[in-house]
Amino acid sequence: MRIVFVHPNYRSGGAEIAGTWPPAWVAYLTGHLRQSGFEDIHFIDAMTGDVSDEDLSIRIADLRPDVVGVTAITPSIYRAEDVLRIARDVAPNAIRVLGGVHATFMYKQVLSEAPWVDVIVRGEGEEICTELMQAIRDGRWPHDRRKIKGLAFCDGDEIVATPAASTVKDLSAIKPDWTVLDWEKYIYIPLGTRVAIPNLARGCPFTCSFCSQWKFWRDYRVRDPKDVVDEIEDLVENHGVGFFILADEEPTINKKKFVAFCQELIDRDLPRRVKWGINTRVTDIYRDKENLKFYRRAGLVHVSLGTEAAAQMKLDQFNKETKVEENKTAIRLLREADILVEAQFIVGLDNETPETLEETYRMAWDWQPDLANWSMYTPWPFTPLFQDLKDQVQVFDFSKYNFVTPIMKPAAMERGELLDGVMNNYRRFYMKKALFHYPWRGTGFRRRYLLGCLFAFLKAGFQRTFYDLGKAGYWGPQTKSKVDFHFDDTRQLAEAQLEDWEAAADRAAERREAVKAQMKERATHRSEALKMPKGFELRACGGGDQQMEDV
After folding, report:
1. Quick one: which H or E segment has residue 336?
2. What is the DSSP track for 265-291?
3. What beta strand segments (E) does 182-326 contain?
4. Residue 420: closest CA among 314, 342, 347, 345
């Protein structure tokens, strides 16, 4: 049986300015399928190769697949639907499969607007996808489709969702097949080296209101650090990877496992050959301040901090429960450990004003991170914050839900003004960094890395790909009133399907009690050992006062 996976050709002008990112999803799915005897697997990365629909049609037709599979996050959902529409036309006998977070929660809308999608895989894909492929291979499709958990499909006029499948419990069985990717294509521009995106853990124990990860993955599970380092060693030795970013939302949550991961890297002498980065929280930097130099010795060179917003009222709305003063100290701690730090700001909510945008710039410059990033608030339709704000949401064109397009219109600003304010922050921050910091501060690796980041920004700016400025028609403050984001006004709001998912994943109250029980011992240690500056109370992402130790 021949399986063809396709990564849809979608670009936003956001994350891809730093390089071409390997679609890790296909490696994890392919690895699991190969363990079950599926060998005839092909992959088309239409995004990295900028493959046109015409060329994609030819390639799918030539392969003559039995199954065509594609994944999608919210902004790429329409392009994923297009891939399967093409498959319907050129390989009509192939089963067309869609997965990913958007289809998991919006399956009714997807199946209604794209009836050529044969089946949606809801949730973690490895075990569900393998069971689905076995049914197709053995001739049990579609007869047995209602027996397979974690699917959604149309049966006549009825949209059917089978009961949610269990999350993957045996993470040691997750063995990605990285050979399915063409590694020459995946380059991290700041360092000019191949890049990978493995994961150490799945899920998150906290419940930030703007995030969908804890909903999608449901359970927080950490892999054996040795298994993960086995993957990284393979990526370095056999695929020439010189930089990786852990895909985890916050890999430092489980400190015991994260320290073991770092030690394993050191024991295998990998930091000499590969450097890496993570996203994490301000609270974990405080917790681990004595370990930061150890993390740097393990090869950690880049930390992206979810400082989120400068205005304290926004931090409260996001349920982050951190204080703006804590962000500055966390950045200082990282810089002292020779770890480059990137501050992330979320902008563009209803209460955004020119003054609050200016405040984020002033704070970014005062805190002195090495890098700063301003992301437009993107209200994922399956998050708690969207439910609170949906009456204010006017744009339902999901292709623009990409962190660079202002979906929300602030009450006091037009969208073009918001974009112009963000661009003004970028211009000032990076111009001053380029003139007075990057060329003169630090030596060796730090300077090379920062100048590489600056080159990536300048390259994207020159090509007009940064923040999709070319497509929007933004050329500076003089054009802010003429910006056109090309929203598809025909798209309408559809409700997410959350009730069955929450029942399968544990209700919120049950989640909180479980997390509290797991963290009780750590909470006692924290209250005795950790003191905050100026008497501030330390809070975890999602509002808890404890940290994850082990599960």
Report:
1. helix 324-336
2. HHHTT-TTT-EEEEEE-HHHHHHTTTT
3. 187-188, 193-196, 201-202, 221-222, 241-245, 275-280, 300-308
4. 347
For 355-383, give the DSSP string. HHHHHHHHHHHHH--SEEEEEE----TTS
The tokens for 200 are 């150490």
> Using one digit for the tens of pLDDT, what is the confidence trace for 430-485?
999 999 898 887 668 999 999 999 999 888 888 888 998 988 999 999 999 999 99
Three-class secondary structure of residue 105 per DSSP: helix
Between the CA of residue 482 and those of 265, 468, 506, what are the distances in Å? 51, 15, 48
Q: How far apart are CA 289 and CA 306, in angstroms?
A: 17
Neighbour-count burial of 550, counting CB atoms closer than 10 A to its CB (0-12 exposed, 13-18 middle, 19+ buried):
exposed
Asked if 377 and 408 count as a contact pair (C-beta separation under 8 A), the reply is yes
Tokens of 492: 């309408």
Residue 520 near residue 225, CB atoms below 8 Å: no
Q: Of 382, 423, 417, nearest to 401 (Cα)?
A: 382
The whole-model pTM stands at 0.88
124 and 203 Cβ atoms separated by less than 8 Å: no
- Structure token digits, residue 163: 């009961």
Element (H, E) at 214: helix 213-217
What residues does 44 pair with on adjacent strands? 6
